[in-house]
Amino acid sequence: MRLQTQLTLAFTTLLVITMTIVSITIHSLLLNVLIQNEKDQLQEKGEMLSQFLYSEVVPSNFSHWLNNEELYLFVYNRSIDRVMLYSRSLDLELIHDWVERYDLTQKQQPLWFDGENQYVVSIISIYPELLDEELVLITPLDHIQEIQQIFFNRLMIVFLIGILVIIILTHYLTHRLVTPLTQLKYQLKKIEKRQFDDVKRVKASGEIKEVEKSVVDMANELERYMKSQQQFFQNASHELKTPLMTIQGYAEGIKDGVFQGEDSDRGLEVIVAEIGRLKKIINEMILLAKLDSNEDVYHEEDIYVSQLVQSTVDRTIPMATEQQIALNHQIYNDAVIHVDQEKMLQAMLNIVTNAIRHAKTKVYIEVLEKDGRLQIIVDDDGNGVDDALIPQLFERFIKGKDGETGLGLAISRAIVERSHGTIRAEHSPLGGARFVITF
Ligand SMILES: Nc1ncnc2c1ncn2[C@@H]1O[C@H](COP(=O)(O)OP(=O)(O)OP(=O)(O)O)[C@@H](O)[C@H]1O
Ligand SMILES: [Mg+2]
Predict the structure, then answer these.
(1) Which atom of ligand 1 is closest in space to residue 383's alpha carbon?
(2) Burial level of 108, CB count in 10 A (0-12/13-18/19+)?
């Protein structure tokens, strides 16, 4: 069943249940209220009547009023047990029966019964200090029930109109709520078919807007991932093809006798070197794949950052000296980090060897605390990284000028992220590139 139908149905059911309960309550309360109201009115009329009954000054139109009011009444004298007066519409036998059956001295009377119908009764004592007479006023319950029914019917009409309006309103509101979801479903279908360019924004509000935003973000991320994956395969096959072609060229040349003597030896040297390069690329790709997967390749332990930097410097000093680059470091704040020591060293080596390769005269490593986070910063005074390259710098096989394989920084990022850190590249105050690892 569609969501809109479900919501409208749920609302309507709830509404009908509530209205039914309210109607039943009103129906039962209404009769009591009407009976009480009738009793009060009878009381008022009775008190007025009792003043005129035995007085000489009876207004001229009194009997006319009495007929108009269609009152059922009788006067009963208790001391002589006689009905003194009664309306023509009442039967004397019935009055005697009532007088015997009900206690007229009680102020509050129950509903009287004549075998068929029920009556609302009000009793007024006439000159209680002089006479022992009671004026009894009576209204058939039928009359009140008729009023109750009319009132109730009107109420029902109002309720029905109300329910109808609410259902229409619910339908409209749920339609507004559900439409963005339906549109979102179509956009998701497009994402499923990888038609990323056709994905359109959907107008929505509240939580649905948040979901919509997540869907768009997801689509963008998926598109980016798929493109990078595609590029990765293209780059990887290219990187692997070049050394293989060199190897094939030399191997065939040697086999066919094209390369002989010294040339043949040089060819073999190139073959060995290229095989070494291939092995390095493949090993790095395997490492990256392992870091990507949840495989148990990352063994964390507590180490001091100073210790990590010192190991990095120890291993890169020979390279720096050879290239006449000054390699300095400064630890402003030392701290313990929870990382895989060997892999983290590998990440640092990738960054620092890059820096030494690109630097003109110096490379500077510093460790400091900023905004409560620990940062390892590597600066060099080389030519820096092109702004256009920075966003993809850490992707696989992405290399700039003087690049080698383009896997080093991808490996560094994978390792840093496995240690719950982040890495970014920017411009260095020294003029070259700056790499910042944040924990
Ligand atoms: N300190 C730096 N100064 C200028 N450019 C840099 C620096 N570090 C990295 N780069 C640029 O970033 C690119 C990617 O670096 P990365 O270390 O990933 O690959 P690579 O050094 O080319 O190859 P390898 O996989 O052998 O490390 C490099 O090709 C280079 O152009
Ligand atoms: Mg590198």
Answers:
(1) 4
(2) exposed
Helix, strand or coil for residue 161?
A: helix
Q: Is the CB of 382 under 6 A from ligand 1?
A: yes
Nearest-atom number in ligand 1 for the CA of 435 is 1
* Adjacent-strand bridge partners of 74: 86, 136
Tokens of 59: 């207004």
Q: Kindly provide the residue ranges of all beta strands, DSSP E only, lying in 110-259, ordered along the sequence.
A: 112-113, 118-126, 133-140
Q: Which ligand is nearest to the CA of 404?
A: 1
Query: What does each C-alpha distance from 378 to 170, 274, 365, 401, 434 come to in angstroms?
Result: 62, 31, 5, 19, 6
Any ligand 1 atom below 6 A from CB of 287: no
Ligand 1: atom nearest CA of 394 is 18
CA of 351 to the centre of ligand 2 (A): 7
Nearest bound ligand to the CA of residue 379: 1
Question: How is residue 165 written in tokens?
Answer: 């309006």
CA of 349 to the centre of ligand 2 (A): 9
> Helix, strand, coil shares of the chain as percentages rounded to 5?
60, 15, 25
Is 271 touching ligand 1 by the criterion CB < 6 Å? no
Q: Ligand 2 center to residue 353 CA distance, Å?
A: 7
**CA pair distance 379, 355, nearest whole angstrom:** 7
Report the separation in Å between the CA atom of 408 and the middle of ligand 1, taken as the mean of its atom positions.
Answer: 7
Query: Which of 298, 258, 302, 329 is closest to 415 using CA atoms?
Result: 298
pTM of the entire structure? 0.59
Q: Is 355 in the pocket of ligand 1 (CB under 6 A)?
A: yes
Q: What is the pLDDT along the chain (439 residues), one digit of tens a residue?
A: 888 888 889 988 999 999 999 999 998 899 999 999 999 999 998 888 887 777 766 666 666 766 666 678 899 988 888 888 888 788 889 999 998 999 888 888 899 998 888 999 999 988 777 778 889 999 989 888 998 999 999 999 999 999 999 999 999 998 988 899 999 999 999 999 999 989 899 998 889 899 999 999 999 999 988 988 888 888 888 889 989 999 999 999 999 999 988 999 999 999 999 999 999 999 999 988 888 887 788 899 999 999 999 999 999 999 999 999 999 999 999 999 999 999 999 999 999 999 999 999 999 999 999 999 999 999 999 999 999 999 889 988 888 887 888 999 999 999 999 999 999 999 999 999 999 999 9
Distance 115 CA to ligand 1 centre (A): 109
Q: Which residues contact 296 (CB under 8 A, 6 or more apart)?
A: none
